[in-house]
User: What shape does this take?
Amino acid sequence: MTKHFIYVFIFYFIACERNENEVITYVDPDCFGSPGFPSTASQYASMIESELGIVPTIILDSLIEIPLYQNGTQVYGQFSSSEIDNPSYLGGKDTWSGSALQRYEGVKSDGTPLPHVVWVAFLRNTSSPSYASGSVQLIGYNEISGATAFFEGAEMVGIEVLQNYVTSIDPITLSLKGTLPGPDNPTQFNQTYIPPPAQCVQCHQSDPFITNDFINSAKIPGTNNPIIPHLNGNSPFYVIGGEDWDMRTIHIEENACFSCHRIGMGTLEVFNNGGYDVNQHMPPYNPGSLSDSYAELVNAWLNGPDNTPNAEWIVPPACEQPAQIVGNDYPYKADFNSIGSKGDDDGKNGDCEDLDSLSCTQYPEYCNWNEETNICENIFDK
Assistant: This one.
């Protein structure tokens, strides 16, 4: 019997057998340390080494390009979401060719392989033929414990990075060449990366790696497998240093949307604001066939799991301990897990009616502004 099977069994036993009046008490997994991040990337690299090994050095030339397609033909340049088949859907921003990914197996400082550890490097390119720009991120993940580390590019705090290390830009494809500093050069490493400046799980909610048609277009050479690892609804997940981050996602018993993975509604919001339509993409084998299940999920998000039959807040497995259903005593609630809360600290989801006209337009997948009544309305109200 596998650990994943045990996790599923325990989770569904709890979900199905729990008395609705029972008080739910959240307990930190045994492996959790004191939350908080050091001030520099090199210090963070030392902090996560026991779980994830050493941080890889990014050679831009070795990254795998994320191809862009227009009516099935690969194209190069800068495009709006409506111009290409697989835009990034990043909040309505344009998508550039030359973005790239790479996967690395974990390794200890003495060279010992860590086959259960995977690192992913992501170059989000915004370069022109004459100027290198964009951002670089690194994510490390331990498939056994769920331990995760996020290294953000220093572009997040206004520091130009790529200009210092890019040696050439392809004038057609916009792909970049050059080598970024690794942890063996602490001074330059700290000028290139920073520890997480905010809760990365605002977007990386369901697991460490975000995927969509854009991201999944980058394949492991010689295969049809994406660079990004495939995780599922039972994959463990916690963030080293972010033990006090809000790890909750909504789960609805017997809802088909959860048959393959957890779902982060904050992640969907980012895509939705960029023009993404869930029912045109999911499920991959028959888009739109689970529209009723998705509508149920959206209602749970808007009205709160407490007000939705069979819905619960859950946090993922971590450190070989199973997923937990959490209630109002969950100590790490954050506002991003409540679209209409306006700062509610109790973690309950708000309603579209709580939003003003400007906020209402930020959630077009869920809410619609009624010009006659001047009220933000739930699209899925029945």
In short: The longest strand covers residues 113-125. Residues 1-21, 340-350 have pLDDT under 50 and may be disordered.
